[in-house]
Design a protein that fits this description.
Layout lengths: L4 E16 L2 H18 L3 E13 L2 E3 L8 E15 H13 L10 H12 L2 H5 L1 E6 L4 E7 L2 E8 L4 H8 L5 H11 L12 E5 L6 E5 H23 L8 E5 L8 H5 L6 E4 L20 H16 L10 H13 L5
Length: 333
């Protein structure tokens, strides 16, 4: 949701003597970080925690202390993804009603990064930004090494471009279709102009517009909604090597050419195609599926380390005993 942001948080433990940092202790530190945020801000819920770095006896390291490493003082630093608790509660309630439990949460920025890093491993060390251009929102995430430097959700997406077209007496569904099929990020990127007849807002008559007119409306709105994104990206120019565009809105013709002159960071498209089998249907190459592919990677890794627990159905004799207990009470058995 639009409320999702990142918060740095840390926990510390003095083990009194030098000893191995157990997985159980790391789990405690992570849970402590979660509780710190949720106790201080009851309206927020921690959606996920990503380790940033550790400080072992005063020395910073990116990886968690190994079993060969003995330390007295351990400090764990995390990036916490937080969001509106009411939204999280609604999601949990939906699963409860379906009789399902949530084993883990996968944060969309983390899923996207997993998909793109699998294709371009070097982007982790060089640092990258991912601009997820959705219909209702845009999410900018900046990542370098093992740390999230920024995650921010902006309250406008590609539907704002649809609205810009529709505001010129165009039916909303026609405006959306025109944007997706013939929309261009700026008149400067048109090879030639042409006129199109679109349904008017009343759904009965038609309105004639030119490609250059529509591209002008789109560019005007892009200037408005991209301004805060580019402003948020500025502090990281020189720190990261690339910005990857993804999401359904990233398919707007000329978007890459529109953005590149506005930042010193190289702009490209996120690509998960290397993760797909050769006979995969063409539809799955769309950037709209990048987060799903990344989620499958994270989920598979999680399941490898947390085997699925299959609960066997009760035997008939056990069911019968349960019924007898319910009817007669425990003293009758």
């Amino acid at each position: 949701g639009q409320s999702m942001q990142t918060v740095p948080v840390k926990s510390h433990r003095d083990q009194v003597v030098k000893q191995v940092v157990s997985d159980a202790l790391l789990d405690e530190l992570e849970e402590e970080c979660k509780n710190k945020i949720e106790n201080k801000y009851p309206s927020l819920a921690v959606l996920g925690l990503v380790p940033s770095y550790y400080i072992a006896d005063g020395v910073m390291q990116n990886e968690a202390p190994s079993l060969d490493q003995r330390v007295r003082n351990i400090e764990a630093h995390y990036t916490a993804f937080v969001g509106n608790r009411a939204l999280v509660d609604k999601v949990s309630a939906s699963f409860d009603r379906a009789g399902k439990s949530i084993d883990m949460n996968i944060i969309r920025p983390e899923a996207l990064l997993s998909a793109f890093a699998a294709s371009e491993p070097e982007i982790l060390d060089e640092g990258c930004a991912v601009l997820d251009f959705g219909a209702e929102t845009m999410t900018l995430s900046v990542f370098k090494g093992d740390s999230y430097l920024l995650t921010h959700v902006f309250a406008n997406g590609s539907e704002a471009l649809t609205d810009a077209i529709a505001s010129h007496d165009i039916l909303l569904t026609s405006a959306r279709k025109a944007k997706e099929q013939i929309g261009v990020a700026s008149p400067r990127f048109l090879e030639k102009d042409a006129k199109y007849r679109l349904k008017s807002a009343n759904g009965e008559s038609t309105t004639i517009i030119s490609l250059s007119e529509m591209a002008g409306w789109i560019e005007e709105k892009l200037d408005l909604i991209m301004a805060p994104v580019l402003e948020a990206l500025k502090p990281y120019e020189g720190q990261i090597g690339k910005m990857l565009l993804t999401g359904g809105g990233s398919q707007l013709n000329g978007l890459l050419e529109y953005l590149q002159p506005k930042t010193s960071i190289e702009v490209g498209y996120g690509d998960h195609s290397q993760l797909l089998a050769a006979d995969t249907d063409e539809e799955w190459y769309s950037p709209e599926y990048s987060s799903l592919i990344g989620g499958l990677i994270i989920g598979a890794d999680y399941r490898e380390n947390h085997p699925n627990r299959v609960i066997a159905p009760p035997k008939i004799i056990d069911k019968a005993k349960g019924i007898i207990l319910d009817v007669f009470g425990t003293n009758q058995i």
